[in-house]
Design a protein that fits this description.
Layout (H helix, E strand, L loop, with lengths): L11 E6 L21 E2 L1 E2 L12 E7 L3 E9 L23 E7 L7 E7 L5 E8 L3 E4 L7 E7 L4 E9 L13 E10 L8 E4 L15 E6 L1
Parallel strand pairs: 1-4, 1-14
Antiparallel strand pairs: 2-4, 3-13, 4-5, 5-11, 6-7, 6-12, 7-8, 8-9, 10-11, 12-13, 12-14
Length: 222
Amino acid sequence: MTGESVPSSDYRVVAHRLERDYRPDANLSKAAWEGVSRVSLVDTENPQRSHPGAETEVSVRWSPEHLYVAFWCQYTELNLYLGEDSGRERWELWNRDVAEVFLTPFPESPHRYWEFELAPNNLWIDLAIEKLDEIRLDAGWNSGFAHASCVDKRSKLWTCEMRIPAASLGIRQIERDMEWRINFYRCDGLGNDSQRRFLAWSPTLQLNFHVPERFGWVRMED
């Protein structure tokens, strides 16, 4: 199935404004996320397929300077790149457990977008993407996004936060009533792609996250 054969997504989520910016620490019990609504992820290929032990929720907030995204990820076993430097981005991070955000502030150009990935052990990568006749990944692009991850082994839950600078996306600042295209994803589990779990907020209806037509919408509100 190609991206052009799927229906456009009408999934919508609201991001409420934060009173002040802060540095992510992956503590999602703090006031910034208290009482904030969450969206759930489903199997990206078949939304009716359930994955017990991999329940995933996401929330999003904003300030004029940053977009904030939080993930709550239940897990059974972690699949990580170990012994690596989290100060440097990790190519092909998506081949292990990871939370991902794809977005663009420019809904008129959905095939040019940005990708942010974060692993339970805080390994990361950010990419500028262009998907026209073929997909082009620019790993040399650097957003300067701040991030943090935390694993609670007792609860079998890993959490993470991303703080994405508006300026890195080519906009001066985020404003109320803006609407961006966005999708949230997760890769989870051991084994090859037939054994792992691939989750999305707005399911792509195929085993492929790079389907801009399936990006949902985030609206900035007070």
